[in-house]
Amino acid sequence: MTNNNYTYKNWLEGKFELTDVYIIKDVDENNKLPRVNPLSIQDDELAKINCKQQELFESLISEYKNKLIKDFNKRYTESSFPKQTLKIQVNDIIAIVRGQKQKFNNEDYIVEKTGQLIPKSFLVSFQKYMNLKLKGLEKTPNFIPSPNSKLFNHSKYILPEVYLESMIMLYKHLSKFDSSIDPSRLFQDPYRSLYDEEPFNESPDIFVSGYGLHLFRQIEEALIILPARPGDYVLIHKMLIHSLTNAIKSDVSLEKFFKYVNSVHGISLKPSSNKPSTSELKKNIICFFLRRYFYKTQSHSRTEIENFVKKVIDQKTA
Predict the structure, then answer these.
(1) Does residue 264 share a domain with residue 120?
(2) CA 94/CA 88 separation, integer angstroms
(3) Which of 124, 189, 192 has the alpha carbon at shortest distance from 161?
(4) Quick check: 49 and 8 in contact, CB under 8 A?
(5) For 15-60, what is each residue's pLDDT tens digit?
(6) How many C-beta atoms surround the C-beta of residue 273 within 10 A?
(7) Most buried among 10, 110, 232, 299, by the most CB within 10 A?
(8) Residue 265 CB partners (closer than 8 Å, separation 6+)
(9) pLDDT tens digit sequence for 260-318
């Protein structure tokens, strides 16, 4: 094939492939297909190819993204524990996009946290593209094979770059279910799971989650000195039911909360008033545990979390 044959039409028909593209050869005879350096192609023909690559890139992302979102929506709506389904999906994306990959054998790497196997060649292209995203750079999709490529079957395989962009789109979709999911931070912060493993919530009628129950137990252990004083539990209730903390359910009145405390400890404590017993020491204790609680349940920055803690202590919502 001569340079005159390196046209957009011949590329579109799969008669040659560019040297920059990601390939998976299913049949050995496909090795004979010419792979052409883009510098050998006339500018006007290369411009047509690049334009089609961009179009195909966007189309492939849209198609796979829609498939991922449809699958998640189905699992979420049918799940007996939708919050857990959301958390697992969020952490899987973070692990795939930002998590460590360890060598599994000569051909594959394994994603920590998920156990997913990734072919070495796929990971190399995935990581190169990922590094550009981390730097805030956009890459021209000259890595896209022809839609009729004999070196890559678009109906059978997914490109690393398409996979990454589709995961980002899915992550954006998940942010609609939980305001603490911030898609922009996927490429700004060091990798960590958004959610820790949630403790079991044995009192779902009182606490929003296992995290809320765990927070109550931590503060109670550090704050309550026997014999227990009603004002301390009034303080705990006030801090944990705050809208930002969201640890105690909003319909759990002070009376219902005291009934729960009494049943757990076998006591007959009654709130003498709605006034909490407070001091700087008690506030510092609560700050300490609130901070840890927010780091487990939120993906916000350190500054934002400190702001959350201050608002709860000051009983401000805005």
Answers:
(1) no
(2) 10
(3) 124
(4) yes
(5) 999 998 988 866 554 457 888 999 999 999 999 999 999 999 999 9
(6) 9
(7) 299
(8) 228
(9) 999 998 889 888 777 788 888 899 999 999 988 887 777 666 788 888 899 999 987 65
The DSSP 8-state label assigned to residue 108 in this structure reads E
Among candidate residues 172, 187, 202, the one where a domain is terminated: 187
Q: With a threshold of 0.85, does the pTM exceed it?
A: no
Q: Domain total for the chain?
A: 2
Tokens of 307: 């702001």
The answer to the question of residue 200 being in a domain is no
235: in domain: yes
Name the nearest CA neighbour of 130 among 101, 155, 153: 101
Q: Is the dihedral of CA 312, 316, 317, 318 positive or negative?
A: negative
Q: Which domain holds residue 310?
A: 210-314
Q: How many helices (H) and strands (E) does the chain have?
A: 10, 5
Q: Which residues pair with 18 in a beta bridge?
A: 36
Determine the longest span between alpha carbons in the chain, in angstroms: 93
Look at residue 203 and tell me if it is in a domain: no
Q: Is 110 helix (H, G, I), strand (E, B) or coil?
A: strand
